[in-house]
Amino acid sequence: MLARNILVSTLLASLIGFTGVVSAQIKLIKTTDGSEFTIPADGLKGTPAEAEFFKTGKNIYIGDAKAIAYGKKRFGLWSCTQCHGPTAGGQVGPGLLGPTFRYPKDATNKGMFETVWAGSNGGMGGKGLGIMSADDGMNADELLQTIAWIRAQSTTGVTGNEGL
Ligand code: HEC
What we know:
By secondary structure, the chain is mainly α. The protein has one domain (26-153): Cytochrome Bc1 Complex, Chain D, domain 2. Helices cover 45% and strands 2% of the residues.
């Protein structure tokens, strides 16, 4: 009887846990006005990294050498370099390495994703696909890899996944 009770409660717990995971989705909030936004279908590549990010806000490309190398190329390709410098340490635009940020939420990967995708009020337009023009901009997976490169430049140890 006791064994059966334990079995039932374990099953219940895993069911509840399962539902919790499935329904948990992060809400993306614009840095400009605090409104919610979503990613258009063509802004998604369909990778496991995107799935994890939209579920938990965690960027699994952090520390991934291949993703970091790819992100470095993207950082140059989208002219982030022009404003933020070749090592993201700052040029015309601010440094992106922390530990403090203009927008404190940019210490998290979710916050930085929101700022880069949908833009800020103080001089940076959104870079997300569909924001600049239908065939330009970055998809979510590319932005996650670009953020992984930015975090890899930091000597302060900020990974953006803290607490996740
Ligand atoms: C035309 C110049 C320009 C380009 C190109 C540009 N940025 Fe920016 N960026 C800025 C400026 C200026 C700010 C400060 C905006 C503000 O204070 O609202 C900024 C802010 C940011 C922030 C917020 C920093 C903080 O301290 O909170 C991040 C992150 C960022 N940029 C990443 C990028 C990435 C990644 C790219 C390339 C996809 C990029 N930027 C391209 C000019 C630029």
